[in-house]
Amino acid sequence: MVLAKIADLYPNYKEDIFGGEDIKSFSVYDYTNDKIGSVHDIIVDDSGRFRYLVIDTGFWIFGKKVLLPVGRASIDYSQQRVYAKGLTKEQAESLPEYDDDMTVDYDYEERVRTIYRGEDYEAATAGAGTVDRDTYNYDRDASLYAHQEEDLDNRQNLKLYEERLVANKDRFRAGTVSIGKRVETETASVAVPVEKERVVIERNAAVEGTVVAPGEATFGEGEVARVEVYEETANVEKQAFVREEVNVRKEVEQETVQARETIRREELEVETDGDAVIDRDL
After folding, report:
1. d(CA 167, CA 52)
2. Mean pLDDT to the nearest integer, 32-49
């Protein structure tokens, strides 16, 4: 029987089989709750049945990839974990290493199955006769492959949806402020005090009987007294001064806007008929 990677047989296996999810990269633990690696790939046969999980052991065994039969895998989808039943570190070290480019044939599978088979295998199959690559059937190793229908093939996925309010902000231009200058004119007046000189001529009568000394009175003509007269005029001119300075900037104010919407959420309802036993992971 030909084995292949799940993506080669089902290119859309995430949607077709797992409902949009994928168990690749699920963490793998042993039953002592120690992490031993992660799921690297899934191997299926040509009928589409799951046969092996490819486990990347990471630092547990230095990144060695080995095969885990699906009957030895218990999958916890809620925790995204795979528990490897009965896989020990000694077994993993003894398992043949898997490579992505290799072909998984009957001889390779037998080497894998030999590691996982218990001591009671020969006694349990004593009357079944010998098998070879042409007569082997996976039902012969039911403990290695029997649980695949329960854990993988028949898994039904029910998604519960809920609505949430997602708030976003839209930025738009609320307006524009333009700041410019204009020139206004007005008539101004200023008072400037100016001075003007004038000549004041005062004539005073001499004291009667005052005698002038001989020779002092010349009685000459042409004698002139000169007085320069000055006056001021107003000289008014315009000068420009800085009246005020205007600074322009933007400030951001924050406010909280409340929005209300009615949202919906789906809740799980479980109805049983008869004595059905349900294992609830709450």
Report:
1. 45
2. 90
